[in-house]
Amino acid sequence: MLQLAGVHKTFGRLKALDGLDLTIEPGTTTALIGPSGCGKSTALRVMIGLLRPDAGRVLFDGKEIGDAPARHRAIRRRVGYVIQEGGLFGHLKARGNVTLMAQHLKWDAARIRTRLDELLELTKFPGDGLDRYPAQLSGGQRQRVALMRALMLDPDVLLLDEPLGALDPMIRYELQTDLRTIFQDRGKTTVLVTHDLAEAAYFGDSVVLMRDGAIVQQGRPSELLASPAEPFVERFVKAQRRHLDELDTGADS
């Protein structure tokens, strides 16, 4: 479904992606994880065409994205994109945010209404919340609106960049459960960026651990835990476990 082949991307002297090779299989959920600055969010933006690679190839359904504006527009309609805190337009109510692309594509009112009803049920978002502005919604509600917007056109691919990172633990837990159900039931090809190994393991069929713009290890979550490819992987896993242990200790005290 998605492939990055030898992709390089730099910002000034910063090497964000260093010959990245990554294949995302159809119908799977892949979690990109790693320390800050490892290139995982850059990889996501390259996949959707928000960034152009300096070198290498980006393929969607076996065809290179290239520089053609028409091809970029066609691909964007097949990809849903969610960022941290939703990225909603503050001057539009929730309804306007969700239906923006459908209106741009001139869907008729009945089709929009039917799709909205489906998404409200899918995301467990209250119908009366559609007439509120983002500032009038909770963090969890804003993320549900962002997810509805990403799903409005029923895309083949979902790209999520730290979608739950700014939420408090209880809301994050509820959304994790709902999101995994959506991923599994809808059979979407999904790529998720997260800092949290436990979250990556919860969602991901495959976990991709990155460092300095390249992949250090890729595989099932259990493989990273049981067979780290190099000392960095072991240190990363231990650091995550230590953080979880500290949280557990703090909760018990």
What features would you highlight for this structure?
alpha/beta, 253 residues, 6-stranded mixed sheet, disordered C terminus, single chain, 10 strands, Rossmann fold, 4-stranded antiparallel sheet
> How far apart are the termini?
48 Å
Tally of extended strands? 10
Number of helices: 9
Instruction: Please state roughly what percent of the residues sit in beta strands, choosing from under 5%, 5-15%, 15-25%, 25-35%, 35-45% or over 45%.
Output: 15-25%
CATH H-level name of the domain at 1-78 and 155-219... which superfamily?
P-loop containing nucleotide triphosphate hydrolases
Q: Which fold name is given in CATH as the topology of the domain at 1-78 and 155-219?
A: Rossmann fold
SS-derived structural category: alpha/beta
Q: What's the architecture of the domain at 1-78 and 155-219 in CATH terms?
A: 3-Layer(aba) Sandwich
**What series of H and E elements makes up the topology?**
EEEHEEHEHHHEHEHEEHH
Rg estimate, integer Å: 19 Å
Kindly describe this structure.
It is a single chain. The chain has nine helices and ten strands. It is of the alpha/beta class. The protein has a domain at 1-78 and 155-219: Rossmann fold. The strands form two sheets. It has a six-stranded mixed β-sheet with strand order 6-7-8-3-9-10, sandwiched between helices. A four-stranded antiparallel β-sheet has the order 2-1-4-5, covered by helices on one side. Helix 3 runs parallel beside helix 5 and helix 4 (109-123) packs across helix 5 (139-151). The longest helix is centred in the C-terminal third of the chain and has 22 residues, at 231-252. The model is unreliable at 243-253 (pLDDT under 50).
